Amino acid sequence: MNPLFRMHPDGTASRASRVFGLVLLVAVAVFLAVALVISPPDSGPNASENSMGDLVRIMYVHVPVAVACYTAFFVTAVASVAYLVRRSEGWDLLAAASAEVGVVFTVLTLATGSVWGHIAWGTWWEWDPRLTSTLLMLIVYIGYLALRGAVLDPVVRARRAAVVGLVAFANVPIVHYSVDWWRGIHQPATISRLDPTIDGLKLFALMFGMLVAIAVYVWLMVHRFRLEFVRARLEEQGLDTALAERRAEAETASGANPVTAPKGAS
Predict the structure, then answer these.
(1) Residue 230, class by beta-carbon neighbours within 10 Å (0-12 exposed, 13-18 middle, 19+ buried)?
(2) Of 15, 99, 151, 172, which has the fewest CB atoms closer than 10 Å, so is most exposed?
(3) CA dist., res. 165 & res. 18, Å (int)
(4) Cα angle at 224 between 218 and 225, to 5 degrees?
(5) CA distance 66 to 212
(6) What is the three-class DSSP state of 42?
(7) What is the spatial distance between Cα 151 and Cα 155, in angstroms, rounded to a whole number?
(8) φ, ψ for residue 114 (rounded to 5)?
(9) Over the stretch 138-194, which tens digit does the pLDDT of each residue have?
């Protein structure tokens, strides 16, 4: 059996996922220690007035969760294409699970960004291109999940969701490059360039945070995938039960109302 389907009888966990979860818990603790305590505050170029000080620590969480949400929606897009090509239920379930986890990380991205903005800009929200496009991305994927909940036929649902999941990914590069394409107050890219603007322990904290965030995404997505698989089986079982009950009702009704012979017939 596929390892993704090897679940504990009392839940979606397996021995491998439990071990992975424990290792991940230690990694998260180490990351928080490095990001929030061990790494030095930002001193800016030549200790100028542009230094962010301890505010830089929010970036160690904000950027990794943003990368995790990009990763989640990329997996949704790939799984959507795979479903349209192969028509396999597993790809549809993977797309759904990844999108739901991606929505969680997008909410975290907006939340940590708002904390950053409140401290750095003096406001919780600005209609900056990066913030606006990220909010739009969140709304689109919430719509994707709503579509999945609104269509009852599993085949029709999977086909429509695959198309939406593929088209929705077009907003991800818009979010990423919005700071380069439009004028806004959001700071430009920090590490997605040949000459990163940070180095040393600060760069390590940021890169380590990305690895941890992606690992957390994988752990959550595996459990969500297994839950989707169980839900699909229960949905099939419920449909089979409903059909069996209707057949039994029809048979009972036909047996209770036999055709009677007309009067005068011998």
Answers:
(1) middle
(2) 15
(3) 30
(4) 85
(5) 12
(6) strand
(7) 9
(8) -65, -40
(9) 999 999 999 999 998 889 999 999 999 999 999 999 998 888 788 777 776 665 554
Q: In whole angstroms, what is the distance from residue 30 CA to residue 189 CA? A: 25
Distance CA 180, CA 165 (A): 25
For residue 19, give both structure tokens: 């071990």
Tokens of 258: 């036999």
What's the maximum distance between 2 C-alpha atoms anywhere in the chain?
114
Name residue 238's amino acid.
G
Burial of 7 (0-12, 13-18, 19+ CB in 10 A): middle
Question: Can you tell me whether residue 53 is helix, strand or coil?
Answer: strand
**Tokens 């004028």 found at:** 183
Judge contact between 5 and 227, C-beta under 8 A.
Answer: no
Mean predicted confidence (pLDDT) in 70-81 = 97
pLDDT of 198 above 70 = no
User: Which sign, positive or negative, has the C-alpha torsion 187, 188, 191, 194?
Assistant: negative
pTM: 0.80
Strand pairing partners for 42?
A: 53
- The residue with tokens 């389907």 is 5
The DSSP call for residue 193 is S
